[in-house]
Amino acid sequence: MFKQNCVYPSEMEITRPTLLLNKETAICNIETMALKAANLNLNFRPHFKTHQSAEIGEWFRAAGVKGITVSSFTMANYFAEAGWDDITIAFSVNILEIPEINELAGRVKLNLLIENMEGLEALQKQITWHTGIFIKIDTGYNRTGIESNRTLLIDQLLEVIQKSPLLQFKGFLAHTGHTYQSNSTHDVFSRHFDALLKMKALKARYVNEWPELLISLGDTPSCSICENFDGVDEIRPGNFVFYDLMQFKIGVCKLSDIAIRMVCPVIATHPSRNEVVIYGGAIHFAKDSIINIDGKPLFGRIIINDGEKSLLLDERNYLHSLSQEHGILKITPRDFQYFKPGNLIEIIPVHACLTANLMKEFLTTEGEIIKMMPFY
Amino acid sequence: MFKQNCVYPSEMEITRPTLLLNKETAICNIETMALKAANLNLNFRPHFKTHQSAEIGEWFRAAGVKGITVSSFTMANYFAEAGWDDITIAFSVNILEIPEINELAGRVKLNLLIENMEGLEALQKQITWHTGIFIKIDTGYNRTGIESNRTLLIDQLLEVIQKSPLLQFKGFLAHTGHTYQSNSTHDVFSRHFDALLKMKALKARYVNEWPELLISLGDTPSCSICENFDGVDEIRPGNFVFYDLMQFKIGVCKLSDIAIRMVCPVIATHPSRNEVVIYGGAIHFAKDSIINIDGKPLFGRIIINDGEKSLLLDERNYLHSLSQEHGILKITPRDFQYFKPGNLIEIIPVHACLTANLMKEFLTTEGEIIKMMPFY
User: How far apart are CA B27 and CA A96, in angstroms?
Assistant: First the structure.
């Protein structure tokens, strides 16, 4: 039997796909990460893109968090309104937003990322307020950033920053996002270690000239399980507040650490093809999947309520496909008995960030509704 | 050179991912489908789940549309508020929503779908207003519905309906959704023809007892290219209002029929790996993809503005991957010159329904902002 930590409040009438949040589990995840950062003497600047909620932000504040990370100007603006005054936008600067950034930089301590001369020169010309600048380093994820050995380009960028009275060099920032593609914790450790070596080499090269430079890293897998943060000054994990099946599959959290569930009504059962139709589709879950034991894409694991008990069904029972509003579950003949039209079931989602982004609000296990950032 | 039909209005300052809509193209798509339905003597009950917008609904009304299709109770409620009084919820009835359905059924002419005895019996017990009932038939998509040869179950359902004074049997409804998985127009024709045979057999069997029964079909691929709707009374396509790359790939629309584009800022260029980073990710596009000529997933085709001209780049240039806010383009060395940080580019999305659902508003090429249904 599955240790149930996410029962939906029976007094709440759930009739449609609903994102259920176990507040206790989320706060425990926050406190665990805050404690780890404190023990390792790291500044904890959590990424708020997973929850996108001013109210959940307060749970971080209660755990001593003072500065935050966001992934867009829009999100920075939202959390500035919510009283956060030290914000890093961890997305290489969008030149077209500089006029709006100026307005925000006048109100809060803002850090921006650059990864090329075009972005930096646009900032240099257009910025009107003191702004912190991180140089974005690519530690191997190959999405954004500058490879750590391209010191000629880094030197050129630093030269421009040095001449810009409004731009203050803060340090080097990386997101070792390829830890999310890990097949095991071993992959996480080795990718994190590789990132550490690259960032430490940069620190060694530039620390004499810039004694206050910071090294900022921040992916949930390595922040959850690695203990070696030698040379690192700051961590910025985000997903850990809820965790999800992807993190569980890598091996960086337990199932009981996952703080969210989708609650969905059963619509129809099709025993002839071992399938159950639920109300809950791509517009609720989003379409990230992991590969199941049968080699097919899995969009979620299933929990059913059998009288007083809550049961996590094994992986042969899973959310198998998604169209706009429909979800199709594959269910073994043994467990088919648990599914009846009009019942509610719980699904553990694969990717918490994208699911929350679609649902736009949480129902807590205490019965409270928590809103997220409205659509911009 | 690409016949450009979707230039964004230069007086509008676009700084973030923006869903651009060519109103003229969308209205042309609506009028073409309305005319086709009229010529074939079919009731045209378009599906509104693609655009989810009261304002775009008015373009349909102007084309003579009186009844509509939606995919959720929430959407039915939204369009009822917008003045639509003849609505089919093309999603097998969610038993848990019947109390809310009652409230709506008292205000508008509502049709519901059933596909099992549980749903029907719940309706029979709880419904308090006259409601039309379609029996959902599975024509081979194998997502929802009853196989057309299960006449024993259909007979049992009809017997219950007959005894329920508030439930009026309307007919048989199917969504031949496997036409979306077609590799060619040939597949669309054969799947549609197969669906026709199944629905005609049902009509032949039940028409004597229920002389007014309707046959309702409605997928965009077959409604766009098939001419044989023998035995069909009503069509319910939705996606055709915008079309998208998936429809273009099947061969049911021209590129110039696609009425939407995502406009995205270029953030960084990485010539060493033939990649460009844009602001525009999974929370803007959603994650449906098609397979590109190189065997890799493609999330969108790219249009660039070269001075006065607009160029659709060939398929070796494409939106290659998506994370939360980032998109990565694969760009050939020949076309790399077109990409500079701070530029705007246009992307034709793969799946219009999911992209629009995320963006929640359109900017028309006339510079008007059109809102969609707010998040429920």
Answer: 32
8 Å CB contact of A15 and B97: yes
Q: Which of B16, B9, B8 is nearest to B266 (CA)?
A: B16
pLDDT for residue B2? 41
CATH classification for the domain delimited by B23-242, as one of 3.20.20.10, 2.40.240.20, 3.40.190.10, 3.40.50.80: 3.20.20.10
A359 → chain B, closest CA residue: B375
- Whether residue B229 contacts residue B236, with contact meaning beta carbons closer than 8 Å, is answered with no
Percentage of chain A modeled with pLDDT above 90:
90
The model's confidence at residue A7, banded by pLDDT at 50, 70 and 90, is: low
Mind listing the pLDDT tens digit for each residue in B33-71? 999 999 999 999 999 999 999 999 999 999 999 999 999
Q: Supply the angle between the helices B73-81 and B98-105 in degrees, to the nearest 10.
A: 20
* Ordered alpha helix ranges (H), chain A: 23-39, 54-62, 73-81, 98-105, 117-126, 151-162, 185-206, 220-225, 245-250, 282-285, 352-359
Using CA atoms of A144, A149, A151, A154 in order, give the dihedral in degrees to the nearest 10.
10
Q: How far is B39 from chain A (nearest CA, A)?
A: 30
Residue A62: both structure tokens together: 């209660």
Q: Using CA coordinates, name the residue in chain B closest to A98.
A: B15
pLDDT digits (tens, 9 = 90+) for A125-146: 999 999 999 999 999 988 899 9
Q: Is the pLDDT of residue A177 over 70?
A: yes
Mean pLDDT, chain B, rounded, equals: 95
ipTM: 0.94
Mean pLDDT of B249-273: 97
- Give the start-to-end residue ranges of the domains of chain A: 23-242, 259-371
**In angstroms, rounded to a whole number, what is the distance separating the alpha carbons of residues A204 and A190?**
21
> Residues of B with CB below 8 A from A323's CB?
143, 177
Structure tokens at B353: 């329904």
Identify the pLDDT of residue A374. Answer: 87
CA distance B354 to chain A (A): 7
Domains A23-242 and A259-371 share a fold: no
Q: Which residue of chain A comes nearest to B322, CA vs CA?
A: A143
CB contact under 8 A, B116 and A143: no
- For chain A, state the CA radius of gyration: 22
Question: Given this model, what pLDDT does residue B8 score?
Answer: 59
**Neighboring chain A residues of B16 at a CB cutoff of 8 Å:** 72-74, 94, 96-97, 376
Cα dihedral across residues B91, B95, B96, B100: positive or negative: positive
Residue type, B195: A
| Percent of residues, chain A, with pLDDT higher than 70 | 97
List the single residue in B with minimal CA-CA distance to A277: B144
CB pairs under 8 A between A and B: 146
**Residue B6 confidence (pLDDT):** 47
Average pLDDT over residues A85-96: 98
Q: A259-371 adopts what CATH topology?
A: Lyase, Ornithine Decarboxylase; Chain A, domain 1 (2.40.37)
CB contact under 8 A, A269 and B323: no
Q: How confident is the model at residue B358 (pLDDT cuts 50, 70, 90)?
A: very high
**Angstroms from B334 CA to nearest CA on chain A:** 21
Q: Residue A283's Cα: distance from chain center in Å? A: 19
Nearest-Cα residue of chain B relative to residue A92: B267
pLDDT band at A9 (very low <50, low <70, confident <90, very high): low
> Residue B51: which of B356, B272, B365 has the closest Cα?
B356
Q: How far is B16 from chain A (nearest CA, A)?
A: 8
Cβ pair B118:A340 closer than 8 A? yes
Q: Do B358 and A358 touch (CB under 8 A)?
A: yes
Q: Which positions in chain A touch B361 (Cβ < 8 Å)?
A: 375
- Model's pTM, two decimal places? 0.95
